[in-house]
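4.2 Preliminary Data

To establish feasibility before requesting continued support, the project team ran the inverse folding procedure on a target of 485 residues. The structure was first converted into the token representation described in Section 3, and no sequence information of any kind was made available to the design step. The complete token record follows.
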């Protein structure tokens, strides 16, 4: 496949994004950048959030993981559904009642300034690590498929892509992203479906026959019953539920789009619709993963993991399929990166700098501050992607879920304690507890074989982290007769 043609496709795709950004970002303000003037269409938000929820990691890592863990990821998907229901009927009513621009304002209302800034800081840390890990994976594929042929170094490729994202998010923010995410999700899902159809047609087998062949090789198993295994169904379902509650419901990037919808009822429809569509889409990704391994076996190609899909699409499929793969891949890349940079900018400006609380700043000064922060986070993304390039060799979906277990646990404990109890917490103790809980989890995870024997900790590490945070808050709190939010 000609790298010049692939590069041209990327350029054309980006120009389309710029046109959409120009059209939607006209006359934008801080309000439209942060929450889209609370006037986003819920159907567009729901559809666009599919791309944000999946990202390039799902596009590459979930199919690549099928040979190792079969269809066990669908257990996590069931948990996602439960988590989305909690978001729709517990968290969203709270956020809408308080009319939040940043969801971490709730922590200030409930506990105090230290808790508020602790929650925002953990979001900034977690989203920065998670988003740059996702970005690294896709940029690395584009580097190997296209840029290496031109002798362009990895850091230049990363910089160019980040500048692209910066250009179309700089003015419009959430107002623009709602539309660009819809476009990109469409391209990504079309790529998924077309790749699946192509392999079925090329191998001349039906869906039923392909499933039978996958089953014979042990790739279609969904539920695992060994309690000691990381794949035990209760661990996976509970882990998936709490990952969704934290990585979506307590994450400014994801909720920023939800609270940009005008009515609570529409935001709830958005979340429930998203959860149902995701179950179908993720099952299709798993099915595609099985197909890719069957196809690789037929071609005698020995590639596994994250490299499987790119290797087959770019080297063992016709040119038009390579183009479809690249378009789908960059469509998976941009929603996870553009939304993250925008949300991090919003959280830092609102939660850390407090530009909305500073009455001495006019709209122009707030906009100038927001744009400078946007530039800084773009540079930070560049640095972290280069770090991942230097150190990473593992499956990126495993890296991201591990990072989430440590960084979202304190948020889970904070929000749960605030919602489920009426106790008053020592606000100054919250940052300390939020640091200690993940450190205890790190020790437990590192020495789990000595502490727990054959029992293996999986996704439930996030829940353990949240429980430790909750317990610490309970210790440093007092009963209160006053009804709190």
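Position-by-position output of the design step:
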């Amino acid at each position: 496949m000609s790298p010049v043609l692939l590069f041209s496709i990327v350029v054309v795709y980006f120009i389309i994004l710029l046109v959409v950004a120009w059209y939607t970002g006209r006359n934008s303000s801080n309000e439209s950048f942060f929450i889209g003037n609370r006037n986003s269409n819920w159907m567009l938000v729901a559809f666009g959030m599919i791309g944000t929820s999946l990202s390039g990691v799902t596009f590459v890592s979930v199919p690549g993981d099928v040979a190792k863990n079969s269809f066990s990821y669908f257990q996590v998907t069931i948990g996602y559904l439960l988590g989305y229901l909690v978001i729709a009927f517990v968290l969203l009513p709270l956020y809408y009642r308080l009319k939040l621009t940043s969801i971490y304002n709730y922590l200030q209302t409930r506990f105090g300034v230290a808790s508020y800034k602790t929650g925002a800081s953990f979001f900034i840390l977690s989203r920065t690590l998670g988003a740059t890990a996702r970005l690294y994976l896709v940029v690395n594929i584009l580097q190997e498929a296209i840029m290496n042929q031109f002798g362009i170094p990895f850091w230049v490729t990363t910089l160019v892509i980040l500048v692209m994202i910066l250009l179309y998010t700089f003015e419009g923010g959430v107002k623009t992203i709602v539309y660009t995410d819809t476009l990109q999700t469409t391209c990504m899902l079309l790529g998924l479906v077309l790749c699946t159809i192509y392999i079925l047609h090329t191998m001349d087998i039906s869906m039923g026959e392909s499933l039978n062949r996958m089953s014979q090789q042990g790739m279609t198993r969904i539920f695992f019953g060994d309690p000691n295994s990381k794949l035990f169904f209760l661990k996976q379902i509970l882990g998936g539920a709490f990952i969704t509650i934290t990585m979506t419901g307590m994450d400014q990037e994801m909720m920023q789009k939800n609270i940009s919808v005008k009515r609570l009822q529409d935001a709830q429809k958005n979340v429930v619709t998203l959860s149902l569509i995701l179950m179908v889409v993720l099952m299709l990704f798993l099915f595609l993963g099985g197909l890719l391994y069957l196809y690789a076996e037929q071609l005698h190609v020995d590639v596994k993991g994250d490299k499987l899909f790119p290797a087959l699409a770019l080297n063992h499929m016709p040119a038009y399929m390579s183009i479809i793969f690249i378009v789908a891949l960059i469509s998976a890349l941009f929603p996870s990166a553009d939304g993250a940079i925008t949300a991090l900018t919003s959280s830092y400006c609102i939660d850390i700098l407090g530009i909305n609380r500073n009455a001495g700043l006019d709209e122009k000064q707030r906009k100038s501050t927001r744009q400078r922060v946007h530039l800084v986070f773009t540079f930070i993304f560049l640095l972290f992607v280069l770090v991942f390039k230097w150190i990473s060799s593992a499956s990126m979906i495993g890296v991201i879920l591990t990072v989430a277990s440590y960084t979202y646990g304190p948020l889970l404990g904070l929000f749960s304690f605030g919602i489920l109890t009426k106790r008053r917490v020592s606000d100054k103790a919250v940052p300390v507890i939020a640091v200690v809980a993940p450190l205890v989890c790190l020790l437990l995870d590192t020495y789990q074989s000595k502490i727990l024997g054959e029992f293996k900790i999986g996704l439930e590490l996030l829940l353990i982290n949240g429980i430790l945070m909750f317990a610490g808050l309970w210790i440093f709190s007092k009963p209160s007769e006053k009804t709190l939010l």
